[in-house]
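In the design runs reported in the main text, the only information available to the sequence generator was the tokenized backbone. The following block is the verbatim input for one such run; it is reproduced so that readers can re-run the procedure and compare outputs position by position.
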């Protein structure tokens, strides 16, 4: 949008943008404005009124279009007052001037210098002037008063300065506002700044720090150094990664914390030689860092291989140099841009290492395969049975025997075990005797009752009495034999179980198994003798 477009566009927006414009200007028709060559003076008057008597605060795009059209239109090369009207009206247009000042060669350098000087004197848009104007010839060809004016203003920001330090050698001593530093080595150098490893010499405990200075002593470089503190404060507020904090900030330097490790450039070389494994911890944590920043929907522009350090002791990535940031719509957009930067600035030789997106997909497949294998292993594994008290005791003793040195045999413990075993045997024998006596008493009562009932039933005839008595006696004999046989079996099984328990106790006593076996056999014989005596008693009663 500009004077080269139909003037109806301007007239359409005038009621909203220019409430203070004179009514005469509002009555200018399109045919008069469209003839720019013949009616240039009227157009100039219109634009000057547009600039001086209006407010562009709500429509900066329109103002930018007009400024660009003026600077690029040769019809207005003889009217530099229009640009000055913009400059005098609002500081917002100073950025537009700085941005478009070199898009045209219609104005002589003397006029453009006057514009720039007027902007600098007002103290507005120093960064834009130094970025778009002073970084180009003829200002870069040597010392310039406008550049010196901006530098002087920049150096008064904090009041702390060390002056231009283009080259620092090991052993050089530099004094800042709060430190006395001895340079040890150069850690890295870029187009605008350099970082040195230094040691404090304040006498309060020596400390290793980093000293960042300006390589080019120009306004844009100095202003960039002064923005370091704001960038660090933004990282601190974001809380997504660790960074080397600024200990002291000056106009043209910064004293920072020192961190040991390898930069992203060195790390990628080692990682590539090792096969670019996606299972590597450093690679996984780098991708996690990209995703963590993506969750904030903020794209940090300082995640370059030179600005990230892999701390091998703490096992994490640190930001050692700050940069700008940009807000994006979704986390996916942020992560995608980091993947692209990884391919462009980290993985320069893409023939050896796949793209970052492919590496992430490979890492996800490996993770899924590992999870599936763990699930199948857990599902196929049988549940461990709960150990019984006996098995638990055996496990504990075996474990203790492997960890505790062998101890001498304790004879008193084995004797106590034998005494306890004998007491148990006697108690079991007494129980058996009582049970047998009770069974005998019950049997005898039943037999007497049966005999009495049989005698009463057989009273009418003697032959019937004799036959029934014989049959009953035979049946009783059979029943007694069967009971005797069953009692013999039970006593034999009990004696066997007793012998087995004795053998086990003797084996645990250690070294006395033979004697225990003899005792077991004696007990078996004793149980058999008791059975025989019980038989003889029964026969006598009969």
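Verbatim output:
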């Amino acid at each position: 949008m500009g004077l080269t477009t139909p003037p109806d566009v301007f007239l359409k927006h005038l009621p909203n943008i220019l409430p203070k414009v004179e009514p005469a200007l509002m009555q200018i028709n399109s045919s008069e404005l469209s003839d720019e060559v013949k009616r240039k003076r009227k157009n100039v008057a219109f634009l000057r009124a547009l600039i001086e008597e209006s407010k562009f605060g709500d429509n900066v795009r329109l103002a930018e279009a007009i400024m660009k059209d003026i600077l690029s239109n040769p019809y207005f090369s003889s009217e530099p007052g229009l640009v000055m009207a913009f400059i005098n009206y609002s500081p917002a247009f100073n950025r537009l001037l700085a941005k478009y000042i070199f898009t045209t060669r219609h104005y002589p350098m003397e006029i453009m210098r006057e514009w720039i000087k007027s902007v600098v004197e007002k103290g507005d848009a120093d960064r834009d002037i130094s970025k778009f104007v002073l970084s180009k010839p003829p200002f870069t060809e040597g010392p310039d008063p406008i550049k010196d004016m901006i530098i002087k203003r920049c150096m008064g920001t904090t009041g702390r300065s060390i002056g231009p330090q283009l080259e620092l050698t090991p052993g050089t001593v530099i004094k800042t506002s709060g430190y006395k530093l001895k340079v040890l080595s150069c850690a890295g150098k870029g187009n605008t700044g350099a970082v040195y490893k230094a040691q404090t010499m304040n006498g309060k405990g020596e400390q290793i720090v980093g000293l960042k200075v300006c390589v080019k002593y120009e306004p844009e470089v100095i202003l960039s150094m002064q923005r370091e503190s704001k960038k660090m404060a933004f990282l601190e507020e974001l809380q997504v990664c660790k960074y080397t904090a600024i200990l002291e900030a000056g106009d043209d330097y910064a004293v920072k914390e020192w961190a040991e490790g390898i930069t992203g450039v060195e790390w990628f070389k080692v990682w590539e030689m090792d096969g670019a494994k996606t299972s590597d911890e450093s690679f996984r944590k780098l991708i996690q860092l990209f995703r963590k920043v993506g969750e904030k929907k903020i794209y940090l522009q300082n995640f370059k291989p030179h600005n990230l350090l892999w701390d091998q002791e703490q096992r994490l990535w640190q930001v050692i140099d700050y940069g700008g940031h940009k807000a994006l719509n979704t986390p996916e957009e942020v992560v995608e841009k980091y993947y692209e930067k990884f391919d462009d600035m980290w993985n320069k030789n893409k023939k050896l290492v796949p793209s970052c997106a492919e590496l992430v997909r490979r890492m996800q497949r490996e993770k899924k395969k590992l999870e599936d294998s763990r699930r199948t292993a857990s599902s196929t594994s049988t549940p461990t049975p709960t150990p019984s008290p006996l098995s638990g005791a055996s496990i504990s003793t075996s474990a203790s025997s492997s960890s505790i040195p062998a101890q001498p045999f304790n004879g008193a413990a084995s004797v106590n075990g034998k005494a306890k075993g004998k007491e148990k045997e006697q108690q079991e024998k007494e129980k058996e005797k009582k049970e047998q006596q009770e069974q005998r008493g019950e049997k005898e009562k039943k037999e007497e009752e049966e005999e009495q009932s049989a005698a009463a039933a057989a009273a009418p005839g003697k032959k019937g009495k004799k036959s029934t008595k014989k049959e009953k006696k035979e049946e009783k004999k059979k029943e007694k034999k069967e009971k005797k046989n069953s009692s013999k079996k039970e006593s034999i099984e009990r004696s066997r179980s007793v012998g087995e328990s004795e053998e086990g106790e003797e084996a645990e006593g250690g070294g006395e198994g033979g004697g225990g076996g003899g005792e077991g056999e004696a007990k078996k014989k004793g149980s058999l003798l008791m059975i025989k005596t019980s038989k003889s008693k029964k026969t006598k009663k009969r």
